[in-house]
Amino acid sequence: MNILFISTWFPYPQDNGARIRVYNLIKALSRHHNVSLISVLQDDSRENDIRYLSDVCDVVSCHRNHWYPSGRLVRLKGLFSLRPSFMVSSRDKRMEESVARCIETLRPDIIVASQFVAMDYVPHRVDCPVLFEELEVGWLHGQCRNGGLLARISWLARYYKWRYCVSDLLARCDAYTCVSEQEKKLIAECYQSSKMGIVLQNAIDHFHYSPNEREPIDGYMIYNGALTYGANRDAVSYYVQEIYPIVSRLSPGVMLHVTGKLPSEGVGQIADCPGVELTGYVDDIRFPLRRSQMCIVPLREGGGSRIKILEAMAAGIPVVSTSVGAEGLCVENGQHLLIADTAEDFACAIARLRSDHSLSSMLSANARRLIEENYSWSAVGERFCNLIDSMVHKNMEQPIL
Questions:
Q1: Looking at the DSSP assignment, which residues form a beta bridge with residue 2?
Q2: Of 58, 48, 47, 44, which is closest to residue 14 (Cα–Cα)?
Q3: Within 34-132, where are the H helices?
Q4: How far is CA 42 from the centre of its chain?
């Protein structure tokens, strides 16, 4: 069949969770179907990288992102629009035309739109099924309760715009996927949509990682996340301000290595911490993972499921995480990882994992087994293809998963 895949993220290089997910879903579809891709290009995307996707899809067109308002007129338009400013500023007429043209000429059997921006380009009425891939609203419903009075009022205005936007996009699709049961439950409760929701968790290419190659260095910890993303920056700030002072007292000599892209500003306090090293973007995350005694994930916000945790588990690296960090993963505290939700508990978990080698080995083995059994892209990709087939063949009551 012919599949039109519209993506908010250009799936190369595969250096963040969104790109990894899009690439692997397209790869799974390409084994049996013809996939045409229309994608947004990020600031670090290069059009000549299209060649790296030639074995999995036909790239119809790519378009530079407009994710942030550029100019007073755009900001005013976003302020007075019923839609979020982010969606107003990201709108690209050329991409809208490309999607319309592709629908007319390709006559796809199904349209897959990955995340909000992509789904916004799907017309309200099309002659084929539409799948809204990776709908995520947990971040919206979590953050609206945070901050002081003015911050809460400001966020409330954005919150209701996003609520309107989500409802509008749900009305355009026939089904949606999300990465966890928590997300699915939240969507069902808050939006009361009749559209079918399917949990399609994130996964990892576990063959890419080998626990047997580990050479952990005492006190070497890793946080594999880009500080250009606000939730990651908040997590590392939390570690620096509240967890590290306790860790340095309980277990001196630890060093947190933060991999991933760095913003141009806003990391001064993090960079000045003697217990943190900012490595910047790493071409192959396996090398710092091999040296890591543990991976820590002190996330306090955000949604979805954490590919950073899946990467560490696949590499045999024990993990200490907050409940928010581990949300969306079918993991058990004390069996697959350690979960700690206060700075004191988090620091104690780090100290315990550093000194208890039998606990470290047990968590490592259990987590790797979990990845192989439940979080491989081969299994998730097969489920995704079965979902696509069931939608095209009008079997929406009981999708073959």
A1: 34
A2: 44
A3: 72-80, 85-90, 93-106, 115-119
A4: 15
pLDDT in tens, the chain (401 residues): 999 999 999 999 888 889 999 999 999 999 999 999 999 998 888 888 999 999 999 999 999 887 665 556 666 666 668 888 888 888 899 999 999 999 999 999 999 999 999 999 999 999 999 999 999 987 777 655 556 777 777 778 888 888 899 999 999 999 999 998 888 998 998 888 889 999 999 999 899 999 999 999 999 999 998 898 888 999 999 999 999 999 999 999 999 999 988 888 878 889 999 999 999 988 899 999 999 999 999 999 876 558 899 999 999 999 999 999 998 898 999 999 999 999 999 999 999 999 999 999 999 999 999 999 889 998 899 999 999 999 999 755 445 45
- Residue 216: asked if its preceding bond is cis (omega within 30°), the reply is no
Q: Is 168 exposed, middle or buried (0-12, 13-18, 19+ CB in 10 A)?
A: middle
Instruction: Specify the residue for token string 């990955």.
Output: 114
Contact 382, 400 (CB under 8 A): no
Strands (E), 115-156: 130-133
Q: Supply 324's token pair.
A: 């928010």
What DSSP letter does each residue of 247-301 carry, written as one string? HHHHSTT-EEEEES---SSS-HHHHT-TTEEEEE--S-THHHHHH-SEEEE---S
**What is the rounded CA–CA span in Å between residue 36 and residue 134?**
19
pTM above 0.85, yes or no: no
Taking CA atoms, 319 is separated from 225, 326, 354, 359, in Å, by: 14, 10, 11, 11
Show the tokens assigned to 175: 């089904």
Torsion of CA 187, 193, 194, 197, to 10 degrees: -20
Query: For residues 313 and 292, what is the distance between their CA atoms, to the nearest angstrom?
Result: 12
